Amino acid sequence: MPHPPHLAHSPSCSQLLALFLVLSGSSELSNGSEWQVLQPEGPMLVAEGETLLLRCTVIGSCIDATMKWIKVSNQEQQEVYNFKHGFFPGVMPMIQGTPEPLNCDYSIYIHNITRKQAGTYHCVRSDGLNEHSKIQQDEGTSVLVKGAGDLEPNLCIIQPQELVLATTGDTVFLNCTVLGDGPSGPIRWFQGTGMSREAIYNFEGISQPKVTAVRASNSDFSILLQDVSTECAGTYYCVKFQRKPNRQYMSGQGTMLRVKAKPTSVNETEVIDQPVASTPMSDLLSVLATVVLGLKTVTLAALLLALAVYWRRA
């Protein structure tokens, strides 16, 4: 995998899901419960001078919404990025060049990060009110920044692939390297975040079918997704858990997987079209042959009748 960056008349599963989200969003507009922001819990570890990728996806209608990122540290709140206006040096959206983020993706990069930028980052909707007061300390994505003089951390989770592109039926490689010891507990893979995240692989437990571990070394926790479909698209996280207490300890930055449907073969289309094109032509030839033979029969009968009349008169 390179490192980065439905064709039938009946509706596909993704189209039905989109329709369901639109209908449910419009029906819940009055109580404001149609919105859901998905971002990893963390903590995420990054060294000074590196680039941090903060993931955020909005479920529900995100058109004409003003989204922003807020950092909370020591009870202070700071606007990190605003998708509608403002200038934020060193911060840029992951998806650029479109009026609205693709698939409601509000992920951002923070380049050349410093220890002052450690804290908890929240992807929030700005509605002109005091939305900052609604931010909870136990939500958002926790970020730890390692300085040059700091001791090596006990654990570091590296997901080098930011984006992976695949076609239906492919086998996809998702890379994860875990360095250090950390607390006792398993490594697990998840698709998505928050309450809607789905367990994909557990190195010490039950895992989904068609998912296998690579384990090229003791620090390799990469997996293979076999025979992927469009439903497999999403962001996958490699996460470390601690056994006592049983809770998430640290998460990788995530790998986004996009899956497109396999195109129909041109040769197959030509073979299918040939009988359709040849059938009308063969029918036309048959009709013409019948007409010609019919004309010949009529002409012959007329000649025989004329001869009979002539012989009678003679």
Automatic annotation (TrEMBL):
From the record, give the transmembrane residue ranges: 284-311
Instruction: Describe the location of the Ig-like domain by residue ranges.
Output: 5-136, 153-238
Tell me the PROSITE patterns matching this sequence.
Answer: IG_LIKE
Going by the entry's taxonomy, the superkingdom of the source organism is recorded as Eukaryota
Extract the Pfam families matched here.
V-set (PF07686)
Keywords in alphabetical order:
Disulfide bond, Glycoprotein, Immunoglobulin domain, Membrane, Signal, Transmembrane, Transmembrane helix
Annotated signal sequence range = 1-32
Question: Under what name is this protein listed?
Answer: Signal-regulatory protein beta-2
- Give the organism the record lists: Hipposideros armiger (Great Himalayan leaf-nosed bat)
